[in-house]
Description:
- This protein is of the alpha+beta class.
- The protein contains 4 helices and 24 strands.
- The chain has a 6-stranded antiparallel sheet with strand order 3-18-22-21-20-19. A 6-stranded antiparallel barrel has the order 4-13-16-15-14-17. The protein has a 4-stranded antiparallel sheet with strand order 5-12-10-7, with no helix packed on it.
- The protein is elongated.
- The two termini are 37 Å apart.
Amino acid sequence: MYLITPLICAALAGCHAPAGEEVVHSVLLTSPMPARAGQVLDFSGIVREAGDISLGFKTAGQISRIAVNEGDFVRQGQLIATLDDADYRLGVEALQVQYDQLTAEVKRLEQLYKGKSVSANDYEKAVAGLKQLGVQLQVNKNKLDYTRLCAPVSGYVREVNFDEAEMVNAGTPVISLLDVGGMEVELDVPATVYRNREHIESIACQPADTPAKPMPMKLLSLTPKADATQLYRMRLGFASTPDAALTAGRNVQVSLRLAEAEGSQDFVLPLSTLFQEQGESYVWTVGGDSIINMVKVSVQGTTPEGRAVVAGLKGDESVVRAGVHALRQGEKVRIIDESSETNVGGQL
């Protein structure tokens, strides 16, 4: 038992460099591979409804009925709310009586006019008065129709803002409707995709959480202005009827196939070469003197094999492949080969 303690101390002492002696890390290197034609970049997107429509009556009144609840699916033309139309009906009936009476009077004046018993001026005044009353009658009929609120498109009721018996003004949003007539996918893409937008060969998407057949997409728009994170907003439409399981708000994986653009400066590296510093991505490069240098790169996406596509390199660098988090700027390292006896299986 007395021999165990010295042996343990000796073993622990062998695991550390002597005091004052600098530790030299061993690293494994890789080389950037140019992004080839037909390269596929994967991004995360989200399914959006075609629009969020705020529906309101075109006239003021008291709500007499709300025919839907939040979350209900409504079809185009379906009645969703009504106003109390009693006063509007009375207005139409009153004008209708006047219009019918004046119509009969104009017919009598027409006969007198033809018999030259009434002057042309009096007859024309009666005809003009009839037309004016007809316009007023039609306006009141329109207001009566406006007491019925129908869905302009098919979609889901997102929000009901008022209850029955409440008063509303013309144009006040009463119901919010999610238009699902044309589902879209939104995603943010880096500058490389924006620069090569003319070289997009094909686009497809599939649910991010379940395996499914990729669905072909078409490019609807690509915002020409980058946001604060230097990303560009892309909107995609479905080339055919989307899967019924794709509801608004669901995450999808979008795959962009790019042709190689002339002068492309994108390279492919293992994800293990990347590390973060203050929100930016970097890699370690090794010079001929075995001194490492931190180089900032821009991650453009990932390949289907799980490798990173980056910009910011020349292509002739030697990049540290593993152990990047233990290194420091300007440090001298020891380069090891794949076949090193201390790197069995290439795990370093």
